[in-house]
């Protein structure tokens, strides 16, 4: 997660909160019970929540049959069909019994099934049940895209239509043998086919003879774009630009400002109609919308933030309305789910507009893993709406200071969040001020076995546990023996020359913050200027002379993705960097082994620093002592820590799980037991790297587990200090300040901050 901080005004204000509002939370003097749990009414209900009527989400059990869904629609006879692929087979299926059963209607002809001769790339259903498909044929003279019309008797007739040549300015791959292809294919009305090619041209064809009725040069006005053919209306969208065409005349129609305005919330994934095209249903991450052409309102029928539609890893393949109260969406499986998933959304007049309970979750930056966890939690707690509040974004223009002031005001008013993700925040300060509830009993109820050294990172002398890392990152280094020796300390590492040649200064400073910052803090919470100066002196020596030709990024702070170890894998293997170091939250043993073979005496080890055996507490949980939903907040925290719930999400940026069983699953390569994957990468320097993704050898699992168990020092969590260090550290590495001047500037900023 990209971490920021909200501490600037919390010193005196939080003290005022304690006095005026009698906060009961963790502190050095012990913990009390929250007496304000009834605020807001039972379960947080209010008058707005008494309103009824909402679409409810259901995952259909038949969803796992297919790898991909090419099209879905309700036919004129009332049946609901879909075209789906599973392995090498493409077929037409009927969804019946409210989505409980699937029946195969027919397979595509044998000559159109996936084989060494070609494969179906796109297919679409007409209202009367005919099928059009774009088949990519692989011949000795190259690839060719052919159109076939398939009737209900499993017979295919080729449509005599040939795509024009690919225009040079659309050849994104810059390959001479790149051919024009069908990018989208739809069958909006009987007898009329609409396709979009790679040039951005849309062709409206007669399905019987392939003659072109109309041609729309949309790519000359906007490219790329999404295309939707609804009834006799063609819609093209790119961002908030929406162009509409009459498919009877072929003429462009007047802009529908309401529809264009509705597109500003994000691209539409799909469209459908139930009245021949007089109105449309539009699906996006924001949810489902209904719009009548010529109207002034786009009605939101489904709020995507309250279901799977709004999650970052939701990849829709097709959507179709069964009727006004039922929507079916086919999407790629989420984390831990294989194949395709079918979701059905059914309107319930009795369901409250919003779930009966609301849990407020706060973080400084948006995080995809948290959104996935929220989605899973919501599926198991349909009566809970998790209101995920993100303080900072590129769009809202709010500063960290602004966010802190707003949040502090809300906490004082009793309207603050229930659960806080504490990454980058001064956790110890909040514990001492009594802002957070004691969670020491929570872990006993999860049924998991945890790394005690990680999970108890914030345990105080009284045994209170007011903040719990749900995950963690490990600062690690990968290099050859010329630039690093296993077990080497910070001082010895920085004595070597060119260890960090060609690296961006901001990236270097931010990474070493984690392994060094924990050694600077004195018992009173202030920084040891001697240690800070030593840090900058050593870092400058190891970094060497700054090369002004190094490409700088246009953001103020290094995002988490840029700080992860894997971000530098290919920089090291291609010889652009002499060492690769960063935060490790996922291990690709196959790739790392291949890298070690390419560098002399290559190894991967704990990253050196002024502090030893450092880990980074990540996705650290805290529950506000002012929460009006303390039991629900604990249920969410318990879910994040449970071995069979949120702990089994594994991505490069999600961090290692703190639960031992989930941690093992994250590194053991079990997903490759049945299907090992051979990888070949052609590097820019002409070299080739090959490795196999396979189950991890037991000795590697043991070694990694023992390494984690050896970690003893949590990194300093205070991004206000981190940002001051990064700002001045970059100036030192660029030669704009001496290390002593940089340290003095850091101390001045930090002392002002700590005094507030």
Record the SSE blueprint.
Elements: H1 10-21, E1 52-60, E2 68-74, E3 80-86, E4 89-96, E5 101-107, E6 118-125, E7 131-139, E8 142-150, E9 156-159, E10 182-189, E11 192-197, E12 202-206, E13 212-216, E14 226-230, E15 233-238, E16 241-246, H2 257-262, E17 270-272, E18 279-284, E19 287-292, E20 298-303, E21 316-323, E22 326-332, E23 340-352, E24 357-363, H3 368-380, E25 384-390, H4 400-412, E26 419-421, H5 427-432, H6 452-455, E27 468-479, H7 490-495, H8 505-516, H9 529-543, H10 560-563, H11 569-573, E28 579-584, H12 589-598, E29 603-606, E30 614-623, H13 630-641, E31 656-657, H14 660-667, E32 677-682, E33 688-693, H15 698-709, E34 713-714, H16 719-733, H17 739-755
Parallel strand pairs: 24-25, 24-26, 30-34
Antiparallel strand pairs: 1-23, 2-3, 3-4, 4-5, 6-7, 7-8, 8-9, 10-11, 11-12, 12-13, 14-15, 15-16, 17-18, 18-19, 19-20, 21-22, 22-23, 26-30, 27-28, 27-29, 27-30, 27-31, 32-33
Helix pairs in contact: 1-4, 8-16, 9-17, 16-17
Give an overview of the whole structure.
- It is a single chain.
- By secondary structure, this protein is of the alpha+beta class.
- Helices cover 22% and strands 29% of the residues.
- It has 17 helices and 34 strands.
- Strands 24, 25, 26, 27, 28, 29, 30, 31 and 34 form a nine-stranded mixed β-sheet that branches. Strands 1-23-22-21 form a four-stranded antiparallel β-sheet, with no helix packed on it. It has a four-stranded antiparallel β-sheet with strand order 2-3-4-5, with no helix packed on it.
- α8 packs across α16.
- The longest helix has 17 residues.
- The protein is globular, with a radius of gyration of 29 Å.
- The two termini are 27 Å apart.
- The N terminus is likely disordered.
